[in-house]
Specification:
Helices cover about 75% and strands about 0% of the residues. It is built from 4 helices and no strands. Helix 1 packs antiparallel against helix 2 and helix 1 packs parallel to helix 4.
């Protein structure tokens, strides 16, 4: 019976790995969309990422259920992580599951780096937009260069009179 649960664990981890790799591709695509200012594609990509994140929650619940089954089948008190699971199964199965776990962790780490880059790029774009808005909404002072300046100069209004 443990064989079936271990097979389910392998299949779940394989699907999770595939999903994380797909999310990584989306994140890298989003980097290019941010750089080129393609807002529609950024929105579409973000929506896809959110769908994957919801699916990840399903995989997490499935994995916990499989852990509960394995814990019962092996008659052990505590089984909270893949690392703990590896201590209770034969080396060949443990090696494959360990490789899957390591690959998932590597993809998650790369995904974290890409997301940090995307966050920095978006922040820079927002700073640039805010700078341009400030330029367009600022009111330049009238010049007082003439000797006959009576102080009755009219101030020049900005291109826009309000911030957006």
């Amino acid at each position: 019976m443990i064989e079936k649960s271990l097979q389910q664990m392998k299949e779940t981890l394989e699907k999770e790995l595939k999903m994380y790799k797909e999310i990584l591709v989306l994140a890298k695509n989003k980097t290019e969309f941010i750089k080129s200012g393609q807002l529609d594609n950024i929105e579409k990509t973000t929506a896809k990422e959110q769908q994957y994140i919801k699916m990840m929650g399903t995989f997490e619940r499935l994995r916990r259920s499989i852990f509960a089954n394995i814990k019962e089948e092996l008659q052990i008190e505590s089984l909270d992580s893949i690392s703990e699971l590896l201590l209770h199964i034969d080396d060949k199965k443990a090696l494959y599951i360990d490789r899957l776990r390591d690959e998932i962790l590597d993809v998650i780490n790369e995904l974290k780096q890409v997301n940090e880059l995307n966050e920095k790029l978006i922040t820079k774009h927002l700073e640039y937009v805010n700078f341009n808005i400030q330029l367009m909404t600022s009111r330049p002072e009238g010049s007082h260069y003439g000797q006959n300046d009576t102080g009755n100069t009219k101030s020049i209004s900005s291109l826009l009179d309000m911030k957006i």
